[in-house]
TrEMBL record:
Superkingdom field: Bacteria
Transmembrane portions of the chain: 134-158
Its EC number(s): 2.7.13.3
Protein name: histidine kinase
Subcellular localization(s) per the UniProt record: Cell membrane
Leading EC class: transferase
Length: 427
């Protein structure tokens, strides 16, 4: 991009235009002046000749006739039939002399007389030369005055651009919130200033979003590190104790420490797997779509819950078929059922519909003020035994299907929570 001074470019362009326009205009003006002067001179001579014919018809004396048709710049010569010459001596036409010859047709003394009207065109040449000089001087003065006016005027004309430059530099220096705020947005500079303000709004919004994302990421990493610290500390303690006890350790103590190692390693592995799952959701989850029988999927998960928690009752109502990833939808339903079991629910009801399903439990319910917060990462209640990632993953999978996962009160007004999963075919 060429970055020559805009003031210099505009000034030179205007002067270049004047250098072309003024000479052309001067030539046109001079040509029109010369042509008009020629026509005026011809009209003057012709008019004087016509006046002489009229005076001859009125039988005006030859001397009076010469006197009356005399005019500035016109040389009058009247030659009577007798050879007598009145007026100025005749001159030969040609060179700088323009001459009109006429024969008078009437009059007692002027019939047959020859009238010579002569004019010196040198006067026209002098006037044309003076006009050319005036045009050259005025053109040069116009160019000089225009150049000076542009140099001064451009400072005011480009003031909005200087304001934009100053604002951009202030943004680079770290100052935020300033705007150009154009008075009119329907002009070229107004539209540019409005677009500049919109760009700053977008940049500052993106910057704020990036800062918020960075803060959330730092908080997430800190929380993940905190969650991993407990199983890792358990693993380290159990391993160090096993080493200290040595081969002579009691079998019961050794078995207890080995179980602790297995339990804490599984806990750490589950947390890492959930974190990886969230990263895949953030990057764009790949779904293996097919027609999913939600009734069959709900029955399978209900059977699993009855197996791991025989004291719980699970009821499945309704039917529905949707397009989705069966494994991912089973993951969502399993997370909802496990979450209800962990908070102390004893009765579950799964309502299946054509666009999703509803999971109702008789647990403590979810207060209104925390219903969105429970879907955030690493957020869990006091009764939860997990790391607080299950509901975040479930909502991420639901949204990857083009739907969502929400929580509310039970429709029948009873105590407990109601998780609604609705689906829409992803594009």
């Amino acid at each position: 991009m060429r970055t020559a001074s805009l003031r210099v470019r505009v000034t030179l362009t205007a002067i270049a235009v004047l250098l072309v326009v003024l000479p052309v205009t001067g030539l046109v003006v001079k040509a029109v002046f010369d042509a008009q002067a020629e026509r005026s001179l011809d009209s003057l001579l012709t008019g004087r000749a016509q006046l002489a014919q009229q005076l001859a018809r009125q039988n005006v004396a030859p001397s009076n006739l010469v006197r009356r048709i005399d005019a500035d710049g016109v040389r009058v010569t009247l030659i009577l039939r007798s050879g007598q010459q009145l007026g100025a001596p005749p001159v030969d036409p040609g060179g700088t002399v323009r001459q009109v010859r006429a024969t008078l047709q009437t009059g007692q003394r002027t019939r047959g007389a020859t009238l010579l009207l002569s004019a010196d065109t040198a006067l026209l040449s002098d006037a044309s030369a003076r006009l050319r000089t005036v045009l050259l001087v005025s053109g040069a003065a116009a160019i000089l005055i225009t150049a000076l006016a542009l140099i001064i005027g451009m400072r005011f004309a480009l003031a909005p651009l200087d304001a934009m430059t100053g604002l951009a530099r202030s943004i680079v220096a770290g100052r935020r919130g300033e705007r150009l705020q154009p008075e009119r947005a329907d002009t070229e500079l107004g539209r540019t200033a409005a677009a500049f303000d919109e760009m700053l709004d977008a940049l500052e919004g993106a910057e704020g979003s990036a800062h918020r994302s960075e803060d959330r990421m730092r908080e997430f990493v800190a929380d993940a590190a905190h969650e991993l610290r407990t199983p890792v500390a358990g693993l380290q303690t159990a391993a160090e104790t096993l080493i200290q006890l040595g081969p002579q350790a009691p079998a019961e103590r050794r078995e207890e420490l080995e179980l602790l190692l297995v339990r804490e390693s599984r806990r750490a592995g589950t947390l890492v797997a959930d974190l990886l799952e969230l990263s895949r959701i953030d990057a764009g989850l790949q779904l293996n779509l097919s027609q999913v029988d939600l009734r069959h999927l709900a029955e399978a998960q209900a059977a699993r819950v009855r197996l791991v928690a025989p004291e719980m009752t699970v009821e499945v109502i309704g039917t529905g078929t949707v397009a989705g990833d069966p494994e991912r939808l089973a993951q969502i339903l399993a997370s909802l059922l496990d979450n209800a079991r962990q908070v102390g629910a004893r009765a579950l009801r799964i309502l299946v519909g054509p666009t999703g399903l509803l999971v109702e439990d008789d647990g403590p319910g979810v207060p209104v003020e925390v219903r969105e917060r429970i879907f955030q990462r690493l957020v869990h209640g006091p009764q939860s035994k997990g790391a607080g990632l299950g509901l975040a993953i479930a909502r991420g999978v639901a949204r990857a299907h083009g739907g969502d996962l929400t929580v509310g009160d039970r429709a029948d007004g009873r105590r407990g929570a109601s998780f609604k999963l609705w689906l829409s075919n992803p594009q």
